[in-house]
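Collaborator request log, item 7. Partner lab (contact: R.S.) asked for a structural prediction of Cupin type-2 domain-containing protein to inform their binding assays.
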Amino acid sequence: MAGLRFVTEQEMQVETLPWGPHDWLCRAGLVDAELLQLVRVHIPPGQGHAFHRHPHMEEIIYILEGTAEQWVDREKKILTAGQVAHIPMDMVHGTYNVGETTLSLLAILSPAKFDGPALVDVSQEEPWKSLRG
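Returned to partner:
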């Protein structure tokens, strides 16, 4: 499957994670990506991708539909369709669905290939554990 130039519903890689299904559209092993990853995430109401960081990647989150409580470090903003958050490499962030419908977003991460963990969960550490109240 590596080396695809086009990815449709038949080729995308669906991954089920605790905060919702992920539709991988671009990542190493699916396409010949070295620098880019693209995933569409569906977060059910009341759920979220708790505070975490990507030690080796920066990220852009683009809201497709729904309402996100988006944290970047200790700054919070409510985002809706068409709005973006940029997360620098290794910065703690979290995305929570505060709407009544499924939150759908695109996450663009770079690079696609790196050494070390893709994600470090810090949601049970202070100050992140108590930040949302």
